[in-house]
Structures are given as C-alpha cells and as structure tokens.
Amino acid sequence: MIKKKFSLQDETEAMKNIAVELENLPQESQQRIVKWLMSTVKDLPQSVNNLQSSEKNIPTQVSVIGSSYQKGEGPKEFFQNKQPKNNYQKLAVLGYYLEFMKGKDEFNSQDLKIAWKQTREVLPSPRVFSTVLNSTLTKYNYFVSGQKKGLYRIGIKGQKLVESLPVQPKGLVGSYRKRRKKNTSSRRAK
Fold first, then answer.
1. What sign results for the dihedral spanned by CA atoms 79, 84, 86, 88?
2. What residues does each domain of the chain span?
3. Helices assigned H by DSSP within 75-148
4. C-alpha span between 53 and 177 (Å, rounded)
5. How far apart are CA 153 and CA 92, in angstroms?
6. 75-164 CATH
7. How many Å apart are CA 139 and CA 88, to the nearest integer?
8. What is the pLDDT of residues 67-103, one digit of tens each?
9. Contact call for residues 116 and 123 (beta carbons, < 8 A)
10. Do residues 99 and 105 touch, judged by C-beta distance below 8 A?
11. Which of 19, 35, 63, 143 has the fewest CB within 10 Å, making it most exposed?
C-alpha cells in the first residue's frame, strides 16, 4: 500500500475549503460541525493532537463564523430571548446555553440549577426538577447521557427545539397579548 505524503500546502488548502463551506451555512450548523470536528480530532493519534502552536500558518483553534452570541450575555438574557413555554423547554434552553455559549462539553444537574437560578425564574422543587430532568432525557430526548453517570449533553432534538424557538428583538421582554374587550351589550339591564 502506497501512502501519499501531504505537504503544508495541502493542509492549508483543506482548511480553506472547510472555511469556505462553513461560511455558506447558518450559525447553528457551523457550531454543530465545528463541535463534531473537534470531537473527532480527539480520537486521532496523539501525534496529530500535539501540534505545536509555534508552527507557522497552522491555525490551532477554529472559531465559529458569524456567532450571534454577545460576550456579556448571560443565561437570563438568552433565556428571555428564546421564551421557552414549559419546564422541559426551559431545561433544553439552559442546556443549549451551557454547551454552546459557555463551551461545556457536558453538564450536570447542578450546572442546570445554577443557570436556572441566574435566569431569576422560580426553580421547581427538587422532586419536580428531577422528574422534569428525567423526562427531558428519556421522554423528549432533548438531552443525551454523557460519558459518566449524571452528565448530560444537548441532543439533536434539543438543539432543533432551541434553534426553532423565536428570538425576541432586544427591548421587548415579556408577553404582549392584546386584551379582549368585554362584551357589555348583552349584560345591560333594561
């Protein structure tokens, strides 16, 4: 079997191709692809992972193009922008925030509770919280189990859910439903 030798120019060309292809995709897709790429790089031999950052023209870090995440934005702002409707969606939004915005590969229930408290939403009782977390994992498949017991990652269904939730324009927080006027014509006394 003949092994083809690759030069630095070949590697640079491959990196350019990846960057060009990523530019054409939405931000959420870019994040998923880069995350997948980084997880597969971990499985490569140690010699590939131990590239020296001093080597010229070789980027050692991949950044997501067009990220809409504001650096100072916390879970409260992200939570308010996404407007989850129930506790299951709330956990999915917080899991998405922890994984994609904070960069945690895996998170536990304590991380979710801390993020929930930072949103200033009322935290459910421990019994209800554990039931919601279990349903989020098993029934709705918004989370998948991590490598160790008690660790979770956002699943594909959870990612799709959070990405499909509306992004509220800045400055509009809360619900703005129009009130129905009462029909007073039938209640008038004659």
1. negative
2. 10-45, 75-164
3. 75-82, 87-96, 109-118, 126-138
4. 54
5. 10
6. 1.10.10
7. 10
8. 344 545 788 988 888 999 999 999 999 999 999 888 8
9. yes
10. yes
11. 63
